[in-house]
C-alpha cells in the first residue's frame, strides 16, 4: 500500500461549496445543530458517504457515520454544525477531506484489512453541549444526560426526534475496531497566517479553566457617601483584574492565554456604588503545570485582596476542560506527509476546542491545521486560500494512508 | 412677629406615618410618581394643606401647591414621590414640616403681609425626569418637553391625564411673590450620623457630571489569539479605571466623589476577547473648578491611553448638573434657629440632588438636613431618630418664621 492516494482536489472544493449552500449567509453559514439547514446537510452527507463506498449509520444525536467494510479502521472526520455566524470551512473542511480520502482509499484498496471510517459530528459548537456529538459517539453521555439538554426553551431530545434521529442508536465508537482518529480543521487563529506558513501539525489542545470571581461590597448613594467609607465592589474588581494580568505576564509562560470576557456590576446604575461585581476569567494552556500555576496566582491574589476596603472576594470554578495531547506516532505520519509538499509548516497547539479533544481520551488522535486568512473564525468572512485547501487535502490523505499502512 | 411658632410635633409624626401608608412596604414605601399610591397621597396632601388654611392648586404634573392668602410668601416644601424601594421620610419629611409650619403660621399670624406657601413636588426621583416637578413649577419645561417623556412604554402626558391633572395648569412660580425657598430633607448619607450630630445646615448641592467612556478593540477567540496581538477593550477599560482613580486620589479634593457605577462588555461572553467596553463615570463636587479639573484628568488620560494596544477610547458627556449654592442670608436664619436647640450641627454640602437645586436658580434657597440612621437611603429601612424628627420640625419652623420676619 505504499503509494499515494489519488484524491481529487477539484471535487474537494466543489463538495465544500455544495455543503456551504446549507444555511448559506453570504460567504458564510448559519447552520446550528438541529436547524433545518443542519438536518438537510446531514442527509446530503450520508449520500456522499454512501457514494464513497461506506455504510452509513445516523445515531441518536445526528452524528453521520460512514463505516468501511474492513474489520478495523482509521476514523477520519470533524463536525458540520456551525455557530450562527459561522464560516464555510469550520468543521466542514475536515469532513469533506475525510470523505474524499475514504473514497480514494476504497477505490485503490477495496480489500484492505484496515479501512477508513468517516464521521460528521453533531453540535461540536455547543448549542446544547460543547462536543455533544463526539461525546455521545464515545459513550460519554447517557440518554438521561441528553434529556437534560435544552436551548432557548427547546429540549434536545424532542428536537432530535423531530429531525428523525433514532434514540436507540447509541455510541458507535468501538475500541477494537478503531486504530486512531485524525481530524483536519482551519486554525481559528492567526499564527499560521501571520507566519506565512502552509500547514500546522497540532501537538495538543489547550486545557481551559473557567472561573467566576465574585466581589461583594455595599450599595451606597454615589453622591452622598464619602470615598473613604465606600465598599466599592466594582473598583475592587478593576484593581484585581489589572493585578492578575500583571501577575500572569510576570509568569512568562509563552503559550498561556487568559481572558476577562464578561463583567457585571450590581445594581449597575450610574449613581449607586456597585455592591457586587462578577468577573468571568478563562485561563488556557497545554501544560497542566502552567494551568495550575495560574490557578494558584488567582487564589493568592484573592487571598491578599479579600476584605480590603470592605470588599469580600470569592472564587467559583465554573468549568474545567483538561488539555489533550495528540499522539506522537500519528503526528510523525502527518509531518512526513506534509514534508512531501512543503517545508513551511510548524508544530503548534490548538487554543480552541475540537472533537479530537474528546476522541483523544479514547484512541490515539492527531490533527492537521490549514491557515485561516487573518486568523478570522466564527464570522461569515472566514476563509482559506485555495492553495491551502488543496494542499491540506493532499497532506491529509497522504497522512491517513501512512497511518493505516505504517501501523 | 418675633415669637416662636407653636408647632405640634406629635401631629408631624402622625402625619408622616399617615403619608407612609400610601404605598407602604414594611417600614418603607413604594410610591413612584403617578402610581396609584402617589396619586392618592396627593389628594390627601391637598386636604391637609386646605385644613392648614391654604388655597390648593394642582398643576399639570401633579405638584400640589398650597398658597397663602398673603400677597408674598416664603415657599416651603419638598417632594412626596419615592423610588420603588423608598424610605418613609425621603421627601415626605420636608412636605409635612412645611404643612405644619404653614398651619401654625396661619393661626398665629393670619394677616401677615408675607405668608407661607407649601409645595409637594412630583417626580423628584426622576422616573420620567430628575426634579420634573420643580422644573415644571419654575417654568423650565414646556408642554412639548413633557410630551417627550416616557417610562417603560408609558408616556408621561397620558398618565398625568389619567390621574386627573390638568395640562392647562402651568408654572406656578412667581418671582414677585416668592421671597425664598426652604426645604428640609433627610441627609441620604452618613456624615451627620457618623459624627453623632443633630442637624445639618446645607451650604450647597454638588454639581454632577456623567460620562460614558467607550473603548473599542477587536473581538477574537480567547483561546486561539496570542496575547500579544489582542485588542482587548475590556482590559483597557480596567486599566483606565484604576489609573483614573489614582489620578483623582492624587488631586486631593476632600469633598470630591466619583463612581464607576456601570460597565458593559460586548459581546460579553467568556471565550471572546471583548471588542467593546462601556464605562459609566460620575464625578461630583460643589466647586466648579474641581469638576473642571476632574474633567481635564479624564480627557488627559483618554488622550494618553487612546490607541494603546489597538484600543481606541472616546468620551461622551451624557449629563451635566451644575452645582447650586444655598443663600448665605437664609442659611444664617437656619443656623440661628438650630442654635436655640442644639450645638451639635455642621455645615455640609449635599452630594444628592434635591428640588432646592432647581429652585436656587430662581430664588434664594436654603436646606436643612436631619440625620439618617446609618446614612441609609433609598431602602425600606431608611429611618431617623424620633428626637431628630421633632428637633428638625422645631428648627425648620423657627427658621421659616425668622426668614419671613427678618427679611
UniProtKB/TrEMBL annotation, chains A, B:
Q: Tell me the domain of life.
A: Bacteria
Q: Which cofactor does it need?
A: Mn(2+)
| UniProt keyword Metal-binding, yes or no | yes
Tell me the keywords, alphabetical order. Hydrolase, Manganese, Metal-binding
What the entry lists under Pfam families is as follows: Peptidase_M20
PANTHER family tied to this protein: ALLANTOATE DEIMINASE-RELATED
Regarding protein family, the annotation reads:
Belongs to the peptidase M20 family.
Oligomer status and interactors: Homodimer.
* Protein name, as recorded: M20 family metallo-hydrolase
Q: Which organism is it from?
A: Herbaspirillum lusitanum
Amino acid at each position: 500500500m505504499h503509494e499515494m492516494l489519488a484524491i481529487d482536489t477539484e471535487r474537494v472544493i466543489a463538495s465544500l461549496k455544495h455543503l456551504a449552500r446549507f444555511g448559506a449567509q453570504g460567504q458564510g453559514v448559519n447552520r446550528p445543530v438541529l436547524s433545518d439547514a443542519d438536518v438537510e446537510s446531514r442527509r446530503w452527507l450520508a449520500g456522499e458517504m454512501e457514494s464513497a463506498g461506506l455504510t452509513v449509520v445516523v445515531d441518536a444525536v445526528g452524528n453521520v457515520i460512514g463505516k468501511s467494510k474492513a474489520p478495523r479502521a482509521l476514523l477520519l472526520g470533524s463536525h458540520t454544525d456551525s455557530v450562527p455566524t459561522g464560516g464555510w470551512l469550520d468543521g466542514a473542511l475536515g469532513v469533506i477531506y475525510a470523505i474524499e480520502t475514504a473514497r480514494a482509499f476504497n477505490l485503490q484498496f477495496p480489500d484492505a484489512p484496515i479501512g477508513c471510517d468517516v464521521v460528521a459530528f453533531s453540535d461540536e459548537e455547543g448549542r446544547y453541549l460543547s462536543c455533544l456529538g463526539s461525546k455521545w459517539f464515545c459513550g460519554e453521555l447517557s440518554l438521561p444526560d441528553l434529556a437534560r439538554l435544552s436551548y432557548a426553551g427547546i429540549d434536545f431530545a424532542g428536537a432530535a426526534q423531530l429531525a428523525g434521529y433514532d434514540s436507540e442508536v447509541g455510541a458507535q465508537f468501538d475500541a477494537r475496531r478503531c486504530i486512531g482518529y485524525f481530524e483536519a480543521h482551519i486554525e481559528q487563529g492567526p499564527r499560521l497566517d501571520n507566519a506565512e506558513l502552509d500547514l500546522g501539525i497540532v501537538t495538543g489542545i489547550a486545557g481551559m479553566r473557567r472561573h467566576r470571581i465574585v466581589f461583594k461590597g455595599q450599595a451606597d448613594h454615589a453622591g452622598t457617601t464619602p470615598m473613604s467609607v465606600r465598599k466599592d465592589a466594582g473598583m475592587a474588581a478593576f484593581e484585581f483584574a489589572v493585578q492578575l494580568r500583571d501577575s500572569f505576564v510576570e509568569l512568562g509562560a509563552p503559550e498561556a492565554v487568559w481572558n476577562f470576557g464578561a463583567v457585571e456590576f450590581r445594581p449597575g446604575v450610574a449613581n449607586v456604588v456597585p455592591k457586587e461585581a462578577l468577573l468571568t476569567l478563562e485561563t488556557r494552556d497545554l501544560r497542566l503545570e502552567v494551568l495550575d500555576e495560574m490557578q494558584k496566582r488567582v487564589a493568592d491574589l484573592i487571598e491578599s485582596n479579600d476584605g480590603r476596603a470592605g470588599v469580600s472576594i470569592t472564587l467559583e470554578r465554573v468549568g474545567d476542560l483538561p488539555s489533550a495531547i495528540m499522539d506522537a506516532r500519528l503526528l510523525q505520519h502527518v509531518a512526513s506527509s506534509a514534508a512531501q509538499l512543503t517545508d513551511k509548516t510548524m508544530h503548534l497547539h490548538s487554543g480552541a476546542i475540537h472533537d479530537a479533544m474528546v476522541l483523544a481520551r479514547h484512541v490515539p488522535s492527531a490533527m492537521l491545521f490549514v491557515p485561516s486568512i487573518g486568523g478570522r473564525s466564527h464570522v461569515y468572512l472566514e476563509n482559506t486560500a485555495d492553495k491551502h485547501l488543496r494542499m491540506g487535502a493532499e497532506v491529509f490523505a497522504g497522512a491517513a494512508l501512512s497511518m493505516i499502512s505504517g501501523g
